[in-house]
Amino acid sequence: ALTIGIVGLPNVGKSTLFNALTRNNVLAANYPFATIEPNVGIVGVPDKRLDRLAELFSSAKTIPATVTFVDIAGIVRGASEGQGLGNKFLANIREADAICQVIRAFTDPDVVHVDGKVEPASDIETINTELILADLQTIENALPRLVKEARMQKDRAATVAAVEKARDILNEGTTIFASGVDREPLRELHLLTAKPFLYVFNLDDDELADDELKARLSALVAPAEAVFLDAKLEAELSELPPDEALELLQSTGQEESGLDLLARVGFETLGLQTYLTAGPKEARAWTIPKGATAPEAAGVIHTDFQRGFIKAEIVSYDDLVDAGSMAEAKSRGRVRMEGKDYVMADGDVVEFRFNV
Ligand code: GDP
Q1: Where are the domains of the chain?
Q2: Is the minimum distance from the CB of 19 to ligand 1 under 6 angstroms?
Q3: Terminus-to-terminus CA distance in the chain, angstroms?
Q4: Backbone dihedral region for residue 7 (phi beyond 0: left; psi -120 to 50: alpha; all else: beta)
Q5: C-alpha 12 – ligand 1 centre gap (Å)
Q6: What is the pTM of this model?
Q7: Which of 14, 17, 110, 232 is the best mutation target for the ligand 1 pocket, counting ligand atoms within 8 Å of the beta carbon and taking the most?
Q8: Any bridge partners for residue 98, and if so which?
Q9: How many Å lie between the centroid of ligand 1 and the Cα of residue 353?
């Protein structure tokens, strides 16, 4: 599964957030025999559509899509110089498919800030600088070889040009992700800042409703998505029974917990989407990359489904709910038969036909 690495300076609330995430662990419920590493948290992506489908199909249970977070300890200034924890930190980050930076915005004077002051913009710069320096190092190491290859193979010249452009972008202090440059020709270098970024701002609870502050922080990290939450509050919420958690949440003026929001935004940041299946046993969301075809989607359920794919019977979630039943959706002509070239849309409700 694709993973999101959680990084941040010390004392910003990473552990608090991560512990709350793992308390919401859905894996234990659905896959009781799976073992997971202590620094991995697999959380459900909240999806109201599943409850509605479960009603329509009298499903015994619902199974949401999941998103996997990995707690990556140890960013320190100088990480890019490969000292101490630095090397391990960079190796862990390289394995993640997206990077979630936790940034402290809460002011609590009892919690010491590593740099002595709470200043989100400067913390973001500190982390990005380490990642940028590591990428520049990667490029300096790779360029002589790439240039040599380009002398022998004409088609490598475009790669060299793209890598040189990336070096210029990084030298200006911009991440590859934020630059919006085409990442495809850079793929082979596995640059850290070419991964999708996502930011979590850990706020005081009374800042959660401060739209001006949130707009200012969002602007710091655009085009990356920003999630605003209070990690301490999330930790409390994760320990309460659902009804009490909802009450506490609403008392802070929020509709949705920060963890739920983070799961949804994280899923999106990874470039994933879901399709749905429903029957008496379960209503379930399945994870596919955006752009996946019907046979690829079938393969997520079982490789045999992909190999023996014949066609997919598909109705959009909205059409199905409008119709109120599968039979009515059919009589309205809303249920389509799609072949192997069909590109899945988010929220397709699907039944696959296949040869075994
Ligand atoms: P980490 O070093 O980034 O993993 O940070 P921790 O999660 O260990 O948190 C460091 C300290 O900050 C702990 O004493 C937490 O209780 C406190 N803390 C974490 N999140 C918040 C928050 O949202 N508000 C306040 N006031 N304190 C927090």
Answers
A1: 291-354
A2: no
A3: 26
A4: beta
A5: 6
A6: 0.90
A7: 232
A8: 4
A9: 51
